[in-house]
Write a structure and sequence with these properties.
This protein is of the alpha/beta class. The protein is about 35% helix and about 15% strand. The protein contains 16 helices and 18 strands. It has helices at about 1-15, 30-40, 80-90, 125-140, 145-150, 160-175, 180-200, 230-240, 295-305, 310-320, 350-360, 390-395, 400-415, 450-455, 490-510, 515-520; strands at about 20-25, 45-50, 60-65, 65-70, 245-250, 255, 275-280, 285, 290, 305, 320-325, 325-335, 345, 370-375, 380-390, 425-430, 440-445, 475. It has a five-stranded parallel β-sheet with strand order 5-2-1-9-18, with helices on one face. Helix 4 packs across helix 6, helix 4 (about 125-140) crosses helix 7 (about 180-200) and helix 10 (about 310-320) packs across helix 14 (about 450-455). The longest helix has 22 residues, at about 180-200. The chain is globular and about 75 Å long.
Length: about 525
């Protein structure tokens, strides 16, 4: 009698306990999912983070006494942006900041930012505006999806192909231009293309799929809204909503074992169908896992990370989507030598091909990829420059001292500044060599399509496998590379975490599922 009573109590405990959810990655996607799931009270949730901090590719740091953003730097679009709204709720920003003109707001967009005063060979402002209009009109045309589909029909044209074709048509129409003028216009056009590459996260605009490039959605309002005192305040605020000990730091996941199918004579699974193994020897059992690691990590490790392997369509999406390296170099000077709070210093190379060859000979192949320096914030004595893709790993493996030396040489070579104040601090990011990121953010490569983002976001399993059902939503996927229209953004990553949390809560509600029912392979 006592034994039967014990069995009934055990069954009750199993049926009444909450589903266990493990979230891999404490970036903005993982934290947004965790905060919603914890607040629901319907599941037990924990977060496994490989590093020692929250935020992922949001990483605020210091150079000297100056706050700088090593990762995401701005809220892109303040209208209907959940990150801006969250920052306002947390009182980091205010609704009145919606259309505020921030310092450096347009320093990578409008031609006025190309300050030619200190160029070795100054360029006429009218020429800058003219070439900018050509570039701006062409890049705007690439956002017209229907037009680009018709234009690229039966071809494999890239965004770079389209821009170059349009620019060449413009150049051919400038019949009164001298050879020198056309060369200057070509340099300017290349300068604007360099900036677009950094925004898009690609090494070259020839890497971007022309047909699907326009699916990216730009939000209205300020496009470069900073978070005062650091972007990581948002990540930390989300983490603060979780109970103590919910986030497990230095828990790098090495393998995720899940149930892809079940033979008819195979015994039913144990209580939780997913087992997560960590590098430090810890293991976690779960009913559901939300994977928020970067696309770069998936590209490198998907074949060993998941057991059994992911289905072929998801592997194809991981392989085909682009994931670029975009980094930053920060130079702190003893004193500032630029005239105003809002300042940009373009590096328009006199002969880029020869400069590139000379740089390679000098064992500094990356220097030619720097295209401009910008002030980081008002009153600072720090300049920042962006680098990307093919040259990133070279820069990341170069010592900060040598990076600083080469950057000063580049400034002197492209401008009239002959004597500069001493550089007292140099820092450069390392997103490409970081094993937990392996890059910066995603883009639609020529081999990919917009549907690849949707494929990457599809949970596993999401339906029955033959006549035998398996526990649903064992593997779920979030992160900026799983949002078809907001990829490469913090708000895109945040929304995917919300999406997966709500997907799971809806699944639990619709199926009235419990761990006991799921262990019996009940699904939608």
């Amino acid at each position: 009698m006592f034994f039967l009573s014990f069995c009934y109590q055990l069954i009750y405990l199993v049926m009444s306990s909450k589903p266990k959810v493990v979230i891999i990655g404490a970036g903005i996607a993982g934290l947004s999912a965790a905060s919603i799931l914890y607040k629901s009270g319907q599941v037990e949730v924990c977060v496994l983070e490989a590093s020692e901090r929250v935020g992922g590719r949001i990483h605020t740091g210091m150079i000297g006494e100056n706050i700088v953003e090593f990762g995401a730097g701005f809220i892109h679009g303040t209208v209907d942006n959940p990150i801006f709204d969250l920052a306002c709720d947390l009182q980091f920003l205010h609704k009145s900041d919606l259309d505020k003109k921030w310092v450096n707001e347009d320093n990578q967009e409008k031609p006025e930012s190309v300050t030619t005063t200190h160029l070795q060979h100054p360029i006429d402002d009218q020429m800058i505006a003219e070439v900018w209009d050509v570039f701006d009109n062409l890049i705007s045309e690439t956002e017209d999806i229907s037009k680009m589909r018709n234009f690229a029909k039966d071809t494999n044209m890239s965004v770079g192909d389209y821009l170059q074709q349009g620019f060449q048509s413009y150049l051919d129409s400038c019949t009164s231009d001298t050879v020198t003028t056309k060369k200057l216009k070509t340099k300017l056009f290349s300068f604007f293309k360099e900036r677009e590459c950094t925004d898009s996260g690609c090494n070259s605009l020839y890497d971007l799929n022309l047909v699907y490039f326009g699916e990216y959605v730009y939000l209205e309002g300020s496009n470069s809204c900073p978070v005062p005192c650091g972007y990581d305040r948002i990540a930390k605020a989300l983490a603060a909503r979780l109970p103590s000990g919910c986030v497990h730091f230095q828990h790098a996941v090495t393998e995720i074992k899940w149930v892809a199918s079940r033979e008819s004579d195979e015994p039913q699974s144990s209580y939780q169908p997913v087992k997560i193994l960590c590098e430090n020897g810890q293991t976690f059992d779960a009913d559901h896992v939300i994977v928020t690691v970067s696309l770069g990590v998936l590209k490198e490790r998907h074949s060993t990370l998941f057991c059994p392997s992911l289905p072929t369509d998801k592997i194809r999406a991981i392989t085909d989507l682009g994931f670029g390296y975009v980094g930053k170099i920060f130079l702190e000077f003893e004193q500032r030598f630029w005239p105003s709070d809002e300042y940009s210093l373009p590096l328009i190379w006199e002969d880029k091909e020869n400069d590139k060859k000379e740089a390679e000979t000098a064992n500094c192949p990356w220097i030619h990829c720097l295209y401009s320096w910008y002030t980081t914030c008002p009153g600072t004595n720090v300049l920042v420059s962006y680098f990307r893709d093919n040259e990133s790993l070279h820069i990341e493996s170069t010592s900060p001292k040598e990076v600083g030396k080469q950057c000063i040489e580049a400034i002197k070579r492209c401008t009239t500044f002959e004597s500069l104040p001493p550089v007292v601090n140099v820092k450069r990011t390392q997103w490409g060599t970081n094993p937990w990121t392996r890059g910066s953010y995603s883009f639609v490569s020529k081999a990919a399509s917009g549907s690849d983002f949707d494929t990457l976001a599809t949970p596993l399993p999401c339906k029955t496998a033959g006549s035998n059902v398996v526990p649903a939503l064992q593997l779920m996927f979030a992160g900026e590379a799983t949002h078809r229209h907001f990829y490469a953004t913090v708000h895109g990553a945040y929304l995917t975490g919300v999406r997966e949390a709500n997907r799971l809560l809806k699944h639990l509600s619709d199926s009235n599922s419990s761990p006991f029912q799921e262990s019996n392979f009940k699904t939608n």
